[in-house]
Amino acid sequence: MRKPAKLFVAVSATLAVLGALAFSAQASAADQSEMVAAGKKIVNNRKEGNCLACHDIKGAMLPGNIGPALVNVKQRFPDKAKLFAQIWDPTKNNPRTIMPPFGRNGILTKAQIEKVVDYIYTL
Ligand code: HEC
User: Fold this and answer.
1) Which residue from 107, 109, 108, 89 is spatially nearest to 99, judged by alpha carbons?
2) What's the burial of 72, exposed, middle or buried (CB within 10 Å: 0-12/13-18/19+)?
């Protein structure tokens, strides 16, 4: 009778740990999806990011094509900090770019750009 009892304790302890892990994974996934959703709004908003004036994003209505289409962003920018820097101040990479320096010029805040980065990382 003792062995099954031990087994039961071991199994339920394992399940409790797994449950806790799943719960915390779910919580951070929710935070992440909120960031992504907020970033999408900023990108699409003509008075905020207005990224679609120049960039095509899959499913966008009447996007521009002055800049490259935003696809495979994660593969293009494995380092998220570089992607942030590109949006904060693209003139650092290319002094002649027409992409506005969203952070440096105060068009978007740091927190907004972080959300934009999280969103376009999903593209
Ligand atoms: C006025 C046009 C314009 C707007 C608005 C604009 N961009 Fe750009 N963007 C460009 C151009 C042009 C490039 C090409 C690189 C260069 O000029 O140095 C570029 C490059 C990029 C790149 C690098 C792409 C790659 O594959 O190397 C990213 C990422 C990017 N833009 C994101 C954004 C985001 C996010 C927004 C909105 C917050 C935005 N851009 C708004 C014109 C624009």
Assistant:
1) 89
2) exposed
For residue 46, how far is its CA from the centre of ligand 1 (angstroms)?
15
**Whole-angstrom distance, CA of residue 93 vs CA of residue 64:** 21
Structure-block tokens of residue 38? 């907020």
The Cβ of residue 116 has, within 10 Å, a number of other Cβ atoms equal to: 26
Whether pLDDT at 120 is above 90: yes
Cβ atoms 80, 121 nearer than 8 A: yes
Q: How far apart, in whole angstroms, are the C-alpha atoms of residue 10 and residue 19? A: 14
Rounded Cα distance, 20 and 37, in Å: 26
Would you say 29 and 35 are in contact if contact means Cβ atoms under 8 Å apart?
no
pLDDT of 93-108, one tens digit each?
999 999 999 999 999 9
Give which of 35, 70, 33, 37 is closest to 51, Cα–Cα: 70
Q: Which atom of ligand 1 is nearest to 97's Cα?
A: 17
- Between the CA of 108 and the centroid of ligand 1 the distance, in Å, is 14
